[in-house]
Amino acid sequence: MTTAPPARLSGIGPLLREWRERRRVSQLELALRAGSSARHLSFVETGRSRPGENLVLRLAEQLDVPVRERNALLLAAGYAPRFAETPLDDPSMGALREGLDRLLRGYEPYPALVVDATYTVVAANQGIAMLMAGLPESLLVPPLNAMRLTLHPEGLAPRIRNLRAWRGHLLAQMERQIALDRSEALRAVYEEVKAYPPAHEDDDGAGEDEPVPYFALPMVIEHDGQVLSFVSSISTFNTPMDVTVAELAIETFLPADPATVEYLRSLTP
Question: How many domains in the chain?
Answer without folding.
Answer: 2
